[in-house]
Specification:
Helices cover 66% and strands 9% of the residues. With 70 residues, the chain is mainly alpha-helical.
């Protein structure tokens, strides 16, 4: 997948961000994920409390709460 984006960056200059910028953004989102969603580590990976996820998404999508309350 990374190689595909490298090739696309060469063929379409200016359309995609540089790889370094993309990696910085991914690291930032991972840090925010840990702070906001408070994942807990399990044997098979990480687990996120669904109610906490809905609460966090409700700030961006206020109508989400209506769907889950039905």
């Amino acid at each position: 997948m990374n190689q595909m984006f490298r090739d696309l960056r060469k063929k379409l200059p200016g359309y995609f961000d540089y790889e370094r910028q993309t990696n910085k953004l991914k690291m930032k989102f991972n840090k925010e994920f840990e702070v906001v969603l408070e994942p807990t580590e399990t044997k098979t990976g990480f687990s996120v409390n669904p109610s906490r996820l809905v609460e966090c998404l409700h700030f961006v999508y206020p109508w989400l709460g209506d769907i889950f309350n039905e």
